[in-house]
Write a structure and sequence with these properties.
The protein is of the alpha+beta class and about 475 residues long. The protein folds into 2 domains: about 100 residues, Beta Barrel (OB fold (Dihydrolipoamide Acetyltransferase, E2P)); about 300 residues, BirA Bifunctional Protein, domain 2 (2-Layer Sandwich). Helix content is about 30%, strand content about 25%. Strands 6-10-11-15-14-13-12 form a 7-stranded mixed β-sheet. A 5-stranded mixed beta barrel has the order 1-2-3-5-4. Bound molecules: aspartyl-adenosine-5'-monophosphate.
């Protein structure tokens, strides 16, 4: 049995879910609880409050004689979402009347207050409803994220996002990976020079990091063998789509003595672990999301661990598929979202797209001179992971031969001198290695059935939004 989490603090003796879960043992016990006032009912000498904290809900019963008359009136007139603290004793609620033959519902508990105080009063009107299921525009929600987050299904999305990180981390540690942190102020672009946010670093120019790429490789070259990092990445892309942001959290790994296939294996096992753990332990969050979806006529989501290994549709096969569907595409063209739709008709879940043309991949991706397409094009060891039409991950085996790294940089119009700190890492012996970078927000979209990446990021940053 897991140790119980200490939920009492300076302000409360019990969290609200404890009152419901342990009510039978708590009867007549004096407790102090806190929460947001969702609703209040009753006039004159009595008042019922629906109280909510981050763990659950509980009814509070206030009655003249038990509590001071002034606080009773204050709470009767209190605005919704104000926070209060209540001291009182736990009691069983009067059971509802049931018709003969109907099942008797399990007992419910409440706190009969003997003292109450208002901690912070909420202004009115609320910019958005917390408990109703009225549709709210995304911009209003994001402007008022602190309130939006109090809505049950939104709260569930961010709980599940946290579970992705928790179970993902747990899996990688089990496979021998160590967590690292790379600098976010950098001097050289890992992912090309066009989408950098420039900044002043004292008297020199620097940039916000686009990816931990070069540093996770240096850590592996240094002998850490298997590393992972969960951290912010910044891209000055002028996109305005449902899946692009200018700041996102990148979940990266890098692994020594490994090929592209090896790290694809790590990825599918990690995703399988996340989905399995969520299905086993976190169904209540999925239920909260589905309860809301029902009110919006949206299909419920189901968390079913995906079958592994995931299908592999090589870049060349993907091009053939798209051409067969009648769409125009040539070997060497990017697979755009509308092309990905065609692949997704066959593979609507997770699938890898390995072996992209070398010319389309960054300078740090490895190629084997013997691996060519039918038309003679140079293939790379770079891959993507898609879910349906959406890219979740890019990764690949890395170039570990110093001379080829230098020539890749030159061929791609980059300045080897700017990458000297990185190339130096390869000069004294380098293990073949591979890795990937996964967009946490995009994976959370899949798990939670969200349609916009902004729904899975607490405070998203896009071209139009830099606050809150
Ligand atoms: P890439 O640039 O493809 O690869 O990024 C990896 C993954 O990060 C997510 N992502 C984004 N999410 C939201 N908004 C964006 N603007 C955005 N850009 C990227 C995607 C994408 O698949 N260094 C390589 C990874 C590697 O090879 O290890 C890289 O950064 O889910």
């Amino acid at each position: 049995m897991a140790e119980p989490v200490p939920l009492s603090t300076a302000y409360r003796t019990h969290a609200l879910n404890e009152i419901q879960a342990n009510g039978a043992f708590l009867i007549d016990v004096e407790v102090t609880v806190c929460g947001f006032m969702e609703a209040n009912r009753g006039k004159g000498k009595i008042c019922f409050v629906d109280l909510r904290d981050g763990t659950g809900k509980c009814q509070i019963f206030l009655k003249e004689g038990n509590v001071d008359e002034t606080i009773l009136t204050e709470i009767q007139n209190l605005s919704r979402e104000s926070t209060i603290q209540v001291r009182g004793v736990v009691a069983q609620k009067r059971p509802p009347k049931v018709k003969e033959g109907e099942p008797i519902p399990p007992p419910e508990y409440e706190v009969v207050a003997n003292h109450a105080s208002v901690l912070a009063q909420a202004e009115t009107p609320l910019p958005l409803g917390v408990t109703d299921s009225v549709h709210v525009e995304l911009d209003t929600r994001l402007d008022n994220r602190f309130l939006d987050l109090r809505r049950k299904h939104v709260n569930a999305i961010f709980n599940l996002r946290s579970k992705i990180l928790q179970y993902g981390r747990e899996h990688l540690i089990k496979e021998g990976f160590k967590e690292m942190n790379s600098p976010k102020i950098i001097a050289a672009a890992a992912e090309g020079g066009t989408n950098l946010f420039p900044m002043k670093y004292f008297d020199r120019d620097a940039y916000l990091s686009q990816s931990p790429q070069l540093y996770k490789q240096l850590a592996v070259l240094g002998g850490l063998e298997r590393v992972f990092e969960i951290g912010p990445a910044f891209r000055a892309e002028k996109h305005d789509t449902y899946r692009h942001l200018n700041e996102f959290v990148s979940f990266d790994i890098e692994m020594a003595w490994a090929s592209d296939e090896d790290v694809m294996g790590v990825q599918e096992r990690m995703i399988h672990h996340i989905w399995s753990q969520v299905a086993a332990n976190e169904q209540h969050f999925v239920d909260d999301i589905n309860a809301y979806r029902l009110t919006q006529d949206m299909e419920p989501i189901e968390v079913i661990p995906p079958t592994i290994p995931f299908p592999r549709v090589s870049y060349c096969d993907a091009i053939d598929l798209i051409q067969q569907s009648g769409q125009e595409i040539e070997w060497g063209d990017d697979i755009e979202a509308h092309h990905a739709d065609i692949i997704a008709e066959k593979h609507n879940g997770f699938h890898f797209i390995p072996r992209w043309p070398m010319e389309m991949k960054p300078f740090y991706i490895y190629h084997d001179e013997n691996e060519k397409s039918v038309s003679g094009g140079q293939l790379s060891r770079g891959f993507d992971l898609n879910y349906g039409r959406d890219e979740m991950t890019s990764g690949g085996q890395r170039e570990h031969r110093t001379e080829i790294l230098r020539s890749n940089l030159e061929n791609m119009g980059l300045e080897p001198r700017e990458f000297q700190f990185y190339i130096d890492g390869f000069r004294f012996g380098a293990p073949p290695h591979a890795g990937w970078g996964l967009g946490v927000a995009r994976l959370t979209m899949v798990l939670t059935g969200s349609r916009n990446v902004r729904e899975t990021v607490l405070f998203p940053r896009d071209r139009r939004r830099c606050t809150p």
